[in-house]
Amino acid sequence: MSASELAREGLIHKLWRRIMRLLGPKGVFLEGFLEHPVMVGSIIPSSRFTIAKMLAPVKWDECKLFVEYGPGVGTFCRPVLDRLGRDGQLIVIDTNPLFIDYLKATITDGRFIAVLGSAADVEDIVHAHGHDHADYVLSGLPFSTLPGGVGPQIAVATHAVLRPGGAFLVYQFTGKARDFMAKHFRHIDSGFELLNVLPCFLFWGWKE
To answer: Which domains, and CATH codes, for the chain?
Structure first.
């Protein structure tokens, strides 16, 4: 590819990113999906109905640390912060720097921490921020399409980092995520939200 072609391609990419940013959070989310569809798993953020149902079982008065994998543009972050106590903390983990940079620029709440990294390293991340464990972990990562071995690693690490009585909250477009959870969580509550694009399965795996 010639220098002029490379320059043209770079200009087109910059123009595309600028257009996506002008569309606001939905544009950033779409850009992230197009760059990493396997990791994002959806082209549209979760609905308010999914958010409300997913977070309903959380005992917020007992929650000091809430962790989220794959926060995207913060669809769940703001509702979590609205419910979280003043002494609580929300740590979000994402492998996409586009999302992490966006969240750092748009969420200024002192209880919020955005980490560029892998959910498989959640134990190290939680400990690095001064916590022994997490009370709840939320994930919308597409377990069935993650690179080989990553899904099981995340399930193991999540179970290990949760306190007894804590829960792993998962929302997916298929029921396969339950298979990853069932190897570590004996008690799993299930739900389904039709008012979402696409309709999704909801799971709450409780650590005994």
So the answer is: 37-206 (3.40.50.150)
> What's the predicted TM-score (pTM) here?
0.82
State whether the Cα torsion 125-76-190-116 is positive or negative. Answer: negative
The SS3 assignment for 125 reads helix
Q: Tens of pLDDT along the chain (208 residues)?
A: 555 554 555 554 565 456 445 545 555 555 555 565 544 445 577 899 999 999 999 999 999 999 999 998 899 999 999 999 999 999 999 998 988 999 999 999 999 999 999 999 999 999 999 999 999 999 998 887 888 888 899 999 999 999 999 999 999 988 888 988 999 999 999 999 999 988 999 999 999 9
Nearest-angstrom CA–CA distance, 29 and 25: 6
Give the whole-angstrom CA distance, residue 108 versus residue 147. Answer: 33
Question: Is the sign of the CA dihedral 44, 168, 83, 81 positive or negative?
Answer: negative
**Distance (Å, whole) CA 187 – CA 88:** 26
